[in-house]
Design brief:
Strand content: 15-25%
Number of domains: 1
CATH class: Alpha Beta
Structural class: alpha/beta
Order of helices and strands: HEHEHEEEHEHHEHEH
Largest sheet: 6 strands, parallel
Number of strands: 8
CATH superfamily: Metal-dependent hydrolases
Helix content: 25-40%
């Protein structure tokens, strides 16, 4: 999906567009040169300039460069089990039998990332690996684990994305978000024109748990 196409859709939907492409060693934006090219391309359009960091992956872009973005999303796409083993969420071959260990590890990683990584939004909270995506995260994570994650977000002023593409987080997580008066962000996480500006799930969940516009994080242009 090209930037001109997104700009056209933004005009048709009368909705400002924010672009947050992936920034990591595994994507095309992975160093200062590619980052500069990315910002230059975005500057041709009236977009909010964002970026999505792969939390836990090494990054060769400076803090000063990242501060040129209007907003930063941090998302978990893999978990490091130890120094030699990563659990990649989108590898359908991966299996991990100890679900309790997985949720504890996931919680610990999220809390640490929220405490240590500069970001405005936590992307698709509690998105599960492919082999677990037929289950609901609300059923796997304890109330205490969810409370710890949301508390870390509140403490570090990080908003929690409600993802239209992945349809996460679930109701239990969002009720804890409301209880702690945490901020939220709504995103389509679109990778195609068909899914762009699709906020059906976020808006439905906001209504279901009683979150209103006062809870929304709004990026500021730089």
């Amino acid at each position: 999906m090209g930037l001109a196409e997104i700009a056209d859709l933004s005009g048709r939907y009368f909705t400002p567009a924010g672009i947050a492409d992936h920034i990591s060693p595994y994507h095309k934006i992975k160093d200062e040169k590619s980052f500069d090219a990315y910002l230059k391309a975005l500057s041709r359009f009236d977009f909010l300039k964002g970026g999505e960091l792969c939390l836990g992956a090494p990054l060769s872009i400076s803090r000063e460069s990242l501060n040129r973005l209007d907003y930063i999303i941090g998302s978990v796409h893999a978990l490091r089990i130890d120094s030699t083993l990563n659990l990649f969420f989108f590898d359908s071959r991966v299996r991990f039998p100890d679900i309790g260990f997985f949720t504890r590890l996931y919680t610990d990683h999220l809390v640490r990332f929220l405490n240590e990584t500069p970001m405005h939004i936590l992307g698709h909270p509690l998105l599960l690996p492919v082999f677990l995506q037929k289950q609901r995260a609300d059923d796997l994570f304890t109330d205490e684990q969810i409370e710890q994650i949301v508390s870390a977000g509140v403490r570090n002023q990080v908003a929690f994305e409600i993802s239209g593409r992945w349809q996460v987080p679930g109701e239990k997580f969002l009720r804890e978000v409301k209880r702690q008066q945490a901020s939220i962000a709504i995103g389509s996480d679109a990778h195609s024109p068909e899914s762009a500006f699709n906020f059906d799930y976020p808006l439905m969940m906001m209504e279901r748990v009683g979150l209103d516009q006062s809870a929304l994080f709004t990026p500021q242009r730089k």
